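Objective 1.3, modelling of assemblies. Example input:
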Amino acid sequence: MSDDASLKVSVWRGAEAGSFETFDVPMQESQTVLDLVAWVQQNADPTLAYRYACRVGMCGSCAMMVNGVPRWTCRTHVSKVAKDGTVEIAPLRNLPVIKDLAVDMDPFFDKWTAAGGAFSPTKSRDDTVEPILPETPERREADAAIECINCAVCYAACDVVSVNPDYLGPAALNRAWSLVNDVKDGALDARLTAVSGAGGCHNCHSQQGCVAHCPNELNPTASIAGLKRATVRAALKGRI
Amino acid sequence: MLERHDTDILILGSGGAGLFAALHAQKAAPDAKVTIAVKGLIGKCGCTRMVQGGYNVALGHGDSVERHFMDTIKGGKWLPDQDMAWKLCEQAVVRVRELENEVGCFFDRNPDGSVHQKAFAGQTYDRTVHKGDLTGIEIINRLMEQVLSRPVERLQEHRAIGLIPAKDGSGLSGVLFIDMRTGGFRFVRAKAVLMATGGGPTMYKYHTPSGDKTMDGLAMALRAGLPLRDMEMVQFHPTGLLAGDHTKMTGTVLEEGLRGAGGHLLNGAEQRFMYDYDERGERATRDIVSRAIYAEMRKSNASPKGGVYISMAHLGPEHVAQKFKGMVKRCADCGFDLAGGKVEVVPTAHYHMGGVVVDPDTRTALPGLYVAGEDAGGAHGSNRLGGNGVANSTVYGGVAGDVMGAEATGALRDPDETILDNEIERASHPFAKKPGNSHNLRTALQEAMWDDAGVIRTQSGLERGIASVHEIGAELMEMGVDDTTRAFNLTWHDWLNLRSLCDISGVIAEAALARENSRGAHYREDFPEEGDLDTSYYTLATQKDGTLNVGRAPVAFTIVKPGETVLPDGEPETMVAAE
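Predicted structure (tokens):
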């Protein structure tokens, strides 16, 4: 690679209304999409807005649309996404744009709460930690869904969210499924009620955009299928 | 231009300390208005989320609070504030039960269902509770959910820029912020304020903390005249990824477990070197390995990018890929083969033990201001044990919430309007200057701190470093920022970040100069001995009228003296089997 090789990087400018602006960014051997964005802000246009924090795929602050696909920009090597020397970077889909590449994530987290995403305790700090066998079916289900970092990549990938803004979305429902399987939790029926309403789990068409794009290889579609079964069972028994 | 806002309890930061404080404050004072303000998004910025290792806690079965305490004191080389270290160890037991039973964390279990506790360096019992190697994500996600589901006021992307005292001198009035999304100033009065912004030594060329961390809290405390202790104590992690100066990947941690599992460190000539420095080889403690790597780098035994290699392939690439799945995937995403190849690494600034002087109830010298987490000094002394960081932030965040809930009862204090104006003026300073690129200055600061106030220090180096920091700080004051729009203007925040980093870099270097011995994370090549333990001192830095004063204060051995122990007679020195 020669020193003067560069990439054409198109970056979204503006808010909901706006346009792409293209910058020539020098190529480097080890370079992530986040590095491209930072280079533009530090060297070409100091007014560019974006968001990142941890740099290593733990905080989920830096997700953006890269060539139309939602990705963690900190963990996406440029060589994986550059096409004919170009990369297009846009704010995450399905969330309001604040400025340029930074979106308002509040709707995503409001839905996390609305889906009953907060644990409901049955014990207190005065009690010992409950022994829980790690290999029970419930715990395996809960664990399979638990390593979500709420980056909203799945939410941006979801076509149901884009046509139905009330849909709770894959991340919130995946969290609810983890809690439904948590034997320590005390709000099962309330949570099943929360996820079976108008914006709930039954909206999912199992198109699996979430599964295809989750950087942590989680399977929200399977979690949502679990919720569908559980809510139907609970409804038949008259619990919800 | 200035919006004004009132609350009862104001919390700066949303790591382990800030989120726990919000929950506890609301429980302690259910009628109080609680506001959480954070530089990024709630639960997403800061460093608790990045905790890989786990949470140190004595849960019995032969372990005890006394044993955890002795490990903390010895690890901190007798410099910790003993009352703080004791409370840390004692309350960690309660806090872990709270995390599991009330917050909803699920920590890894043994096959019999009991909580699994793993080995961590420098401890005499395998006591580290964890969730795989992503413990911080589990803790912060669960805490965040609890806070978001409660009526806590959120001020996100609000950067704190000044602690504003009351005009009558009775204490703290409130905090001045920049609402980063609009670029406007907002002053928030509160009866009690917790500062839990998390230190984060990002003024070094190689560093691990998240990008939002720039010592803003300590810089505000310094300007407010609060005493800071142990400021020379910067912990370096030995193996940060080295991928070039242009990428944010550089400096991020490759986990300790790689060395523990038998990974080799190789110098530029691809030779192992750790046994030249320590009989434990690669398994020596963080400080020793960091100094050894740095010494190899100084001897020009460096890898192409200027570090050393970590090599795992001899353990079997498939085995490595399975055992360190997350690390191998992270390296692969960035273009490196950790399982089968060699990856360049370098010591990287990880944690700052120093901070604001507080009492064990998180109170400071300024009534109305409380400090917890990495912003507070004392609990770790000269060195933090792996697994004590998240214990510290969650324990003391909860304590702060309890104490603020009980003490935030009086009236709001009116601010000193002159100081408020001065702080606005200070933050607006770059708009009056010709725009430049502060990124180059930040690089210069990071080079200076790395070379002259880093892993190995000397008097002449520190003096050179201090001069460089002053020059860079002066140059920054002549460098401007374009004022076309202040909304989400990251370049303005880069300027403010660098201002905070310059201010605290100067204190770190001055404190390092004042400590004429080598303790824990602080190593002086010209004073390599640890000094007399019985007359141990800690450094104390205070700024008054723009002049920094660094002194020494004797460590009070309030619980145990050097050479003694609080373990009962006949207790074994260690309960960890030798390798």
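The beta strands of chain A are 6-14, 18-26, 63-66, 69-72, 86-90, 97-99, 102-103.
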